[in-house]
Write a structure and sequence with these properties.
Layout lengths: L9 H9 L14 E10 H13 L6 E4 L23 E5 L2 E5 L10 E7 L5 H6 L5 H5 L5 E7 L9 E10 L3 H9 L10 E2 L25 E7 L3 H9 L4 E4 L5 E6 L7
Antiparallel strand pairs: 1-5, 1-10, 1-11, 2-5, 3-4, 3-10, 6-7, 7-9, 8-9
């Protein structure tokens, strides 16, 4: 992340991504503005996926759904284009997943876009409360793990919960829980504190997505539900076509984080 990128507005960042001038994880960019997970799939699967989100609101909080064929999230990011404005995408076809820098050539009039809440939203609030966020300190992606905890299935969608992990000093864990609980629309309070084996995670140094981060003496691993959960469900569903953001490389909207806080 360059000095210039750290000071861009959401629209400036989206334009830089769209033109190919900037790529990479979006953690820490456009502080104060909401970043979202992206799931794009055919209308024939949209109801099942909406039901999956309704049954699993912790990892899949729906912030906006676009009508079939629409590419502009007019409510949350006017002028944005969901086909070009994430730094990287993943394209699902059956049991194959391939990367893409943009997905304009794949667009169809029956595609429905879901914007889901992202835990990057509450990180500014954690920092303001004096709670450190390790991956921001290191300038890397947040570590993400596929757990052994099953989600509630819906139609063709089923799979296990994905979580993000942040090491928190033990005396600040209550504050971290309280701060993030104010943001139920972006995963809210942690799903687990302490023992990764309770979630089926064997090695915190080997995340399934993102980058490993150090857990220092006196710190506790704290786990939040993650919007990459639908990507596990998509792999299991084997759709003829579906598109998501690459983990940690989000669509940045014009919505202010504080507007999602519940006091």
């Amino acid at each position: 992340m360059g000095h210039t990128a750290s000071h861009w507005s959401p629209n400036e960042l989206r334009q830089a991504i769209r033109s190919g001038r900037w790529r990479g994880p979006t953690a820490g960019l456009c502080p104060g503005y909401t970043q979202v997970n992206l799931v794009i799939l055919p209308q024939s699967l949209a109801f099942d996926f909406l039901l999956f989100c309704q049954r699993n609101p912790k990892p899949c909080p729906v912030l906006e759904v676009l009508e079939p064929g629409r590419t502009e999230p007019r409510r949350s990011a006017p002028g944005a284009d969901v086909r070009t404005d994430c730094p990287a995408y993943r394209v699902f076809r059956g049991d194959r997943v391939t990367p893409a820098d943009d997905v304009r050539d794949l667009w169809r009039p029956d595609l429905v876009t879901f914007l889901l809440g992202c835990s990057f939203t509450f990180e500014a609030a954690l920092l303001e409360a004096g709670v450190p966020v390790r991956h921001l300190e290191l300038g890397c992606n947040v570590p993400m793990f596929v757990t052994s905890v099953p989600c509630e299935p819906a139609g063709v969608f089923r799979g296990n919960l994905v979580v993000t992990m942040r090491p928190i000093p033990s005396d600040l864990v209550p504050k971290a829980v309280t701060v993030t609980a104010r943001f139920p629309g972006v995963h809210g309070a942690p799903v687990h504190v302490g023992n990764p084996e309770r979630l089926g995670i064997r090695d915190l140094g080997a995340p399934d997505f993102g980058d490993p981060v150090e857990i220092r003496p006196g710190e506790v691993p704290v786990f939040w539900a993650c919007g990459v959960t639908p990507q596990v469900a998509l792999r299991n569903a084997r759709p003829e076509l579906a598109i998501t953001h690459a983990p940690g490389q989000m669509l940045v909207t014009d919505v202010l984080d504080r507007s999602l806080a519940v006091f």
